[in-house]
Design goal:
Chains A, B: This is Urea carboxylase-associated family protein. Chains A, B: It holds the Pfam family DUF1989. Chains A, B: InterPro entries: DUF1989. Two copies of one chain form a homodimer. In chain A, strand 5 and strand 6 form a beta hairpin. Chain A has 193 residues and is mainly beta. Chain A is globular, with a radius of gyration of 15 Å. Chain A has one domain. In chain A, strands 1-12-3-10-6-5 form a six-stranded antiparallel β-sheet. A four-stranded antiparallel β-sheet of chain A has the order 2-11-4-7, with helices on one face. At the A-B interface, helix 1 and helix 2 of A face helix 1 and helix 2 of B.
């Protein structure tokens, strides 16, 4: 298993048919996930298309994840937690400035993804809303209020996704206090045949 | 007041400080809205950033709407309906194929926006999740289930937004049966000083 250190990120290729296992090693840690069609990086993971076709904001095993072109990019095939977020953008220096009021903000998952994807010529403007693995966001159906709670994931919990096209993947160990119950931990990942 | 015919779309420039009034002329009709920074069209309206900073999925008067770069693009200053959607992507031929099972699908708001924005060199891949004015989407906070109900808007209901930067705007009279209570109607708009 490869390790993403706390408050950092990485990128890698996941070929069609391969599986990716993402593990919360210590528990209560979020991993921001996004992907692009490796052969045409203008095609990217779309929260809006995925939620629309799944008719739910809570994506879990069995759900296909769609691109902005309405093609299936991957399917989630195992999920020991069953609670993730697909509404919120990756934390960034702006998040820490606007929400947390930090004067010298961390670059966050957004900055970590920018760095990790730069070698594939992905620009910051091309980083969309991420699928926030293990992130526990509640929505009040009456008022619309969104709250960020500690993840439901415990040490060793994981998801497995299966690529339905050749993918460029970005993945982080999230940097936002609130999302990880105020303690930054690593994230594990491995590519399975 | 200018009229957008049923199942069509348009684009126009809204300069900083100008206001845009969007009117549901007959009632129960959705209008998909998106915008770009006129001077750098890689900067676009972001549902993820806006929901994150507002801490609600229901945006209404008083809320700033953010770009992917976390800049305020516009603020909603009046809202006689107070129920709109910012989760779902514009309806498209894929929507009609996947959700409705249509064999010869309409191009939808997505296709209408593509056509309307082509003259400004916006490509289809650059059309993000839209702010769906008057669209009535419910979310079950327990299960995550998303449902599309008839709009709450009645004839003459409107919103007014105020541009905080020079904007290129795309706007439609929505083409999806479910979103408009199975009757396609026009949308009115006017630019106010």
């Amino acid at each position: 298993m490869k390790i993403i250190n706390p408050r950092s990120g990485t990128s890698f290729i996941l070929s069609k048919g391969k599986k990716l296992k993402i593990t919360d090693i210590e528990g209560e840690q979020v991993a921001d996930l996004l992907c692009y069609n490796l052969n045409d990086k203008k095609e990217y993971l779309s929260s809006g298309r995925t939620i629309d076709y799944a008719e739910t904001i809570f994506l879990t095993e069995g759900h296909p994840f769609y691109s902005n072109r309405s093609n299936v990019m991957f399917t989630m095939i195992e999920d020991t937690v069953k609670r993730h977020d697909f509404l919120l953008t990756p934390c960034s220096s702006d998040t820490f400035r606007i929400i947390y009021g930090h004067e010298h903000p961390h670059q966050g998952c957004f900055g970590n993804l920018c760095n990790a994807l730069q070698e594939y010529n992905i620009t910051p403007d091309e980083i969309p809303t991420t699928f926030n693995v293990f992130m526990h966001v509640t929505v009040n159906g009456e008022t619309g209020k969104v709250d960020v709670l500690p993840p439901k994931s415990k040490a060793g919990d994981y998801i497995i996704i299966e690529a339905k096209m050749d993918l460029l993947v970005g993945l982080t160990a999230c940097s936002a206090e609130m999302s990880n119950n105020y303690s930054f931990k690593p994230i594990g990942y491995e590519i399975l045949d």
